[in-house]
Write a structure and sequence with these properties.
The chain is mainly β. It has strands spanning about 5-10, 20-25, 30, 45-50, 55, 70, 75-80.
Length: about 100
């Protein structure tokens, strides 16, 4: 769903897509905070969320998605530091 001007928040129900491996919500108008339920997408390998209006702290839950290879959150409104739990992502190649 790249460049579709999708607005609103990422719903907590994203957890129902447990088998997703690749998520690209790039260049939209998404806002709010990342739902913690994203950790339920345990097979997630690539997560692209850049060029949106997501705010708040970068979620610690990404550190619990152990197969994550790429996490791209640039051009949002995050605050604070990256969570220490990212060290759990031993396959992480791009941040």
């Amino acid at each position: 769903m790249w460049g579709n001007y999708i607005s609103g928040v990422i719903p907590a129900e994203i957890e129902y897509f447990k088998n997703l491996q690749y998520v690209a919500l790039i260049e939209n108008m998404l806002e709010g905070r990342l739902p913690e339920s994203i950790v339920m997408i345990s097979k997630l390998q690539q997560f692209y969320l850049y060029t949106n209006k997501i705010s708040g702290k970068t979620s610690y839950v990404f550190g619990n998605i152990f197969g994550l290879h790429i996490l791209n959150l640039r051009e949002n409104h995050f605050e604070g530091t990256m969570p220490d739990t990212l060290t759990n992502c031993t396959h992480l190649e791009e941040l």
